[in-house]
Structure to design on (396 residues):
């Protein structure tokens, strides 16, 4: 463990854990590792905000111990019971025996059900209530479904600082603790949002309403770097992703065995680009599904391709479809394509799924038998052009 001390404002420290080797965070691709952030407040009452994931309790306790004896902790604030934040409470209580766990009503219920047999010294706090810590205080704001029903955030008005839990987080391990020290945070933030938050976008908008007008200088999330600059930019991005994430762009995703569907994918992509719409392309056998999901969230058109495997879409594309569904893609144009040998079936399944996911418009699918001919590739190119024109029309 590093002995670095990260003091965000006077008496408020980052004391989390860094997982440099994390590559898959329950389905989210994390090529650069991840972090579990916890924060220690030194005031008349010593307070820890959140804990860390399984196997990282020692790192958390060691880090706290470089600042204060953990036995002096008065409050353990449990904002969210998902195990990446709550697993260490039992370990913390061993070294902080006088501490009370502060959480919401549902937080208490979820803690007891998640750790049967553990006796937690819980104090339940109401939505909007405040807790004095000495010179500073915390106001608790419940933000159900960002990410679980029990989730709350804690606002410190004296510093205009919010401990935002999963909101504004990303999974990235870095020697830097602040977002302004990291150049390329957009894609990790987008991937995290699209995989973990987007399904509950309406809840994010409700949460924004609850904190409307609250002055904010610093955002301390439970994953990834701390936001201390460009607060307006990051909140605007979150607002956009939660309301209308689509830009004038398209994405083509596909999977293939004998490369016919790949040929189709590239011809379609060319057709989309030819009318001036940027189009990205992902081979779902080579890309982690959550990476393609992040691109799909911002695309106005999502074009899904798969060869027919027996009677169904080849499995990488089949596996991607729930990722697409969880974007709540109701303002997107969808289209399906693929090759088949004899019976076909993949594009029929994919087209029905796009309709079931409530895409705002779904095109008739495009099929090619065996190997695409020049004529078939021309059809693919024209199919892409049609999709591209629809994207352009949506923004004109
Ligand atoms: Fe980082 Fe929903 O837990």
């Amino acid at each position: 463990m590093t002995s670095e001390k990260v003091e965000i404002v006077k008496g408020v420290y980052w004391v989390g854990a860094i997982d440099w080797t994390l590559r898959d965070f329950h389905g989210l691709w994390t090529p650069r590792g991840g972090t579990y952030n916890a924060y220690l407040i030194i005031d008349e009452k010593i307070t820890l905000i959140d804990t860390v994931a399984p196997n990282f309790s020692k790192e958390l306790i060691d880090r706290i111990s470089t600042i204060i004896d953990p036995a002096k902790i008065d409050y353990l604030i449990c904002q969210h019971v998902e195990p990446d934040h709550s697993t260490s409470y039992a370990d913390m209580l061993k070294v902080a025996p006088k501490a009370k766990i502060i959480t919401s009503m549902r937080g208490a219920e979820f803690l007891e059900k998640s750790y049967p047999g553990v006796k937690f010294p819980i104090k339940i706090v109401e939505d909007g209530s405040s807790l004095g810590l000495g010179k500073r205080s915390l106001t608790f704001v419940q933000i159900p479904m960002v990410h679980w029903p029990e989730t709350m955030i804690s606002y410190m008005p004296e510093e205009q600082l919010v401990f935002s839990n999963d909101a504004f987080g990303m999974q990235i391990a870095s020697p830097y603790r602040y977002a302004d020290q990291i150049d390329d945070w957009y894609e990790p933030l987008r991937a995290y949002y699209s995989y973990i938050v987007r399904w509950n976008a309406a809840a994010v908008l409700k949460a924004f309403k609850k904190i409307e007008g609250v002055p904010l200088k610093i955002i301390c999330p439970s994953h990834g770097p701390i936001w201390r600059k460009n607060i307006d930019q990051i909140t605007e991005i979150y607002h956009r992703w939660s309301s209308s994430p689509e830009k004038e762009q398209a994405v083509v995703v596909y999977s293939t065995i004998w490369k016919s569907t790949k040929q189709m994918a590239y011809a379609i992509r060319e057709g989309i680009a030819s009318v001036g719409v940027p189009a990205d392309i992902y081979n779902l056998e080579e890309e982690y599904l959550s990476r393609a999901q992040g691109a799909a969230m911002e695309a106005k058109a999502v074009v899904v391709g798969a060869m027919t495997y027996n009677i169904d879409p080849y499995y990488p594309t089949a596996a991607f479809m729930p990722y697409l569904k969880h974007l709540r893609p109701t303002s997107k144009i969808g289209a399906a394509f693929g090759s088949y040998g004899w019976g076909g079936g993949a594009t029929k399944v994919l087209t029905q799924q796009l309709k079931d996911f409530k895409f705002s418009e779904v095109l008739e699918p495009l099929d090619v038998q065996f190997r695409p001919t020049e004529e078939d590739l021309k059809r693919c190119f024209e199919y892409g052009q049609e999709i591209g024109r629809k994207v352009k029309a949506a923004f004109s």
